[in-house]
Structures are given as C-alpha cells and as structure tokens.
Amino acid sequence: MMGFLRAHGMDAGPLQRPILAGVLTGLAATVPAALPFLVLGSFEVAADQVMRLPRPLAAGVLVGAFTLSGALYGLVLRRAANDRRGGWLFGAVFGFVLWLAAPVVVLPLMGSGTMAAGRAAAGFLASFLVWGVLTGALFPLLHAPLKSKMDGGRRGFDRVGPSGAAFGQGLLRRLPRNWR
After folding, report:
1. How would you class 104 by CB atoms within 10 Å of its CB: exposed for 0-12, middle for 13-18, buried for 19 or more?
2. Could you give the residue ranges of the DSSP H alpha helices within the chain?
3. Residue 102 pLDDT class (50, 70, 90 cuts)
4. What is the count of structural domains for the chain?
5. 3 part of a folded domain
6. Domain range spanning residue 103?
7. Is 116 contained in some domain?
8. Does some domain include residue 5?
C-alpha cells in the first residue's frame, strides 16, 4: 500500500520541502512560546538546574532545540502538516508529545536528574503547547511560498504527483481557477 501511495505522489516530493518549512515555522513559533516559559520561571530552572549552563547559552540551546523540533514536525507529518484547518491540532499534539519525551531524552543527556515542579513545570507544558499550536498553524502559511518559489511560481504544477501521470497521457482536465 505504501508503495502505491509513494508512486502516486502521496509522499512529500522534491518540490515540497517540508523540513525547511518546519525549520522556519519552528523558529517563528519559538518567540511566542518563550513567553510562558519566562513568565512561569521555567527558563531559570532549565538553565540553572537542568542544563547547568549560562543563561545566554541555555537560551541558544533552547531556540536550537525548538527549531530542530520544527524540522522534525515537517519530517514526520509531511503532507498532513499542510492542513490549514487541522494543522493547529496536529501541532498541539506534536508539542504535547515533545513535552512528554523531553525528560526521557534530555535529562540523561544532560546528566541531570533534576526535573521542574510546580509553576516551572506548568511553564514547560504551556510553552510546548503554545509552540505546537503556532507551529501547526503557521506551517501551511510558510510552506506555500516555499513551494511556489520552487515550482517557478506556477499554480497547479502538474508535472509531479498524481496529476503528473494523467498530464503525460492527456487525461488531465483543467479545473476552473475558483475550484482550487
């Protein structure tokens, strides 16, 4: 079944660039997501107790982690990330999963057994959820210009994907512009 889907353009192709769009949306969503992280005192706990790094370096590590998480969002969800109506929900779920996985993955790497509690823990959760919702909502908006630049600015680029097969055989029927 997966071979059939890939053969007919269901896999993200070279003209889609979901990872680049994920990096850009992850970076854009990091700034608003930092607000609950700072307000609820989570940044101090993360920098001083968990990472044990100077605060500017800890901020850079966190921005880099959220940016790479955006790339992971684009890599994992691919075409599903382009959903304009449900993208925020995909992002919220992805942020929640990252919040669940962060202590399991990060704490052993840092050599720290310290976890946040109370307000700081709430700040972590709020930050990951805000980041996820914004990443999911922004992904289709930032991905569309990237895709249109790569296909030469033409709408309905019909040489790849499911319509590419029909185009080559003369089976493709042009739809009215207002239908899209």
Report:
1. exposed
2. 2-7, 18-39, 42-44, 55-77, 87-110, 119-150, 162-168
3. confident
4. 1
5. no
6. 16-179
7. yes
8. no
